[in-house]
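Student: I would love a firmer grasp of how sequence relates to backbone shape in proteins. Thank you; the sequence and its tokens follow:
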Amino acid sequence: MDIIVFKGAENRSLLEKIEQHRIQVWRDIVGADVAHTRFSIDSFDLTSWHVVVCGANIEIIGSARLIIASSPHNTPDLCSFGPYVPSIVYPAAFLNRLAVHAQHRHKGVTKLLNNKRHEIAFAQNAQEMWVEARADRKPSLAQIGYECVGTSADESVVGDWLIFRMRIKEVRQTRELAATVKT
């Protein structure tokens, strides 16, 4: 498996393949209409970081997007994060549009995608990372440092969706402390 990282405007043809991949994956979960509306290329895609895990012949196995928002004015997915904007510390990273092909789930692809997005967010000096995820993801997100801050305001997708935040400063301090203890 190969990992490709790029900004959307750098590779429009791959971005179009990602769009097809996202819609295909999410169609099985939320239905064709919602998948097309919610996961097609949007205004954030060209300026966002994209992480792609590929197999042979650049077949997309998994993809995920990372947006670094510098202010409330460029916060993505206000339908989901809108109520939380007053409490967000900027610059903030938004991890969204995660899509892993059904045949490749539970094989570490999501972990690869998230680790790479976390690295980028750290390098871009984001203060917090925000993610919207299904309620069943709460234990795994808590294990890596996310706290649940409430429910998603988006009602377009059926299910129990929650909003999670990770404060990067706290994560850095914990990692630095762990490194000090090891030496």
